[in-house]
Amino acid sequence: MRKTREKGSFIEWLLMLLALSVVIFAIIVPKTGRQGFNFSFPAYAPTPFTNPVPFSGNNSGGIPDVNSGGYPAATGPAITNAGFSGQSSGTISISTGNAAYTIQPMEEYIIIRNNGNQGVNLTGWRLENAKSQRAYAVGDSAVHYASDTAIIPQGARIISPSGANIMGNIVLKPGEEAIVVSGSPENQSPYRMVSFKETECTGYLGETFRFPLGLMQSCVRPSNEPGIQGVDLQCRNYIDSIATCHTPKPDTVDPYGNKVDSRGETCKGCIDGKSGLSSICTNFIKSHYSYAGCLFNHSNDNDFERRTWHVYLYRPWEMWASSNETILLYDNLNRLQAYYSY
Question: Is residue 195 located within the same domain as residue 313?
Fold first, then answer.
């Protein structure tokens, strides 16, 4: 009996202690503070992106603020651009060429230059104007249009006389430049013209095709042509008078199809109206002093290639406005690599 009473007393004491604890907890902890445990994690908030490499430079006409909503910011290495003013330390720079004062696409051009110490593959890069940043009056409204874009194509290292041009990527070596024409080549005869690189022989093309900025006249001087030692003295004297990068016209004819010289008299073996040249001489001139002849004799020269590409965008209308324009160049990863405002 005694053990039973002692056990009952202990249980009653334990219940009273538990009740007292509940009362104390209710008094100390307010109702509003009682909540269940929260096992959820706070929502993820990404850190806002800030461009770690702000653009720099001082273009005449102003530089668009690429980090304030004007144009997308670059995500690649530091890029700056100030044309050829000497104010840019970027790898690629842009010059306006004649873009500000011509409207013919076959004449309009800009210049892209590689100022770095590594080659830059331009094929696939995108040029874009700032049309979307300008308002155009349409009736009583101001309308914005999408910007015009153009992709830099492939080009040929050599314009093939047969028309079988071998196309490849346009790679600017250090110090090289690309003259980028908005339109197409003016004609396709006698050679099939595409984007191409200047060589020791392209000066001959200037007599047949028109180029907005011309071509470097860097052909081998006629009097220095290999094999000239095998011609006669009269021929040698005549060759000394031929202009560099000029293709003499053989077998001049009159309206009746008769071969004539510069005086209109019948002659045999006429070259640019010059008569009395030997057959050895005329054959030598025909095989050496022309674009095809130059390629045959000099395409393996160590200094055959020059430092300028001529690139065509094949647009039917002008690309660049006369003012309030920005030329933007994006690489094939859509990173802004260079720009120029005027």
Answer: yes
Are residue 327 and residue 194 in the same domain, yes or no? yes
CA separation (Å) from 255 to 103, 252, 264, 272, 275? Answer: 40, 10, 10, 16, 18
Q: In the numeric block, which tokens belong to residue 99?
A: 């873009």
Q: Please report whether residue 195 resides in a domain.
A: yes
Residue 14 placed within a domain: no
Helix pair 291-298, 279-288: axis angle to 10 deg = 80
Q: Are residues 101 and 187 in the same domain?
A: yes
Q: What are the residues whose beta carbons fall under 8 Å from the beta carbon of 20, sequence distance 6 or more?
A: none
CA torsion 239-225-219-260 (nearest 10°) is: 30
Interior/surface letters 176-210, b for 16+ CB within 10 angstroms, e for the rest: bbbbbbbbbbeeeeebebbbbbbbbbbbbbbeebe
Q: How does pLDDT run across 241-300, given as a tens digit for each residue? A: 999 999 998 765 555 666 655 565 566 667 887 878 898 999 999 999 999 999 999 999
| CA nearest neighbour of 337 among 182, 172, 197 | 172
Q: How many domains does the chain have?
A: 2
In order, the DSSP letters of 235-260 are: HHHHHHTSPTT----BS-B-TTS-BB
Query: Residue 175 belongs to what domain range?
Result: 92-200+304-341
Q: Are the C-beta atoms of residues 174 and 119 closer than 8 Å to each other?
A: yes
- List alpha helices for 114-232, DSSP H: none
Which residue positions in the chain have pLDDT lower than 50?
Answer: 1-5, 7, 29-89
Asked if the structure places residue 64 within a domain, the reply is: no
Q: Is the pTM of this model over 0.90?
A: no
What letter represents residue 235's amino acid? C
Question: Which residues, listed in sequence order, are joined to residue 340 by a DSSP beta bridge?
Answer: 327
Q: Is residue 41 part of a domain?
A: no
Give 10-29 as a DSSP string.
Answer: HHHHHHHHHHHHHHHHHHHS
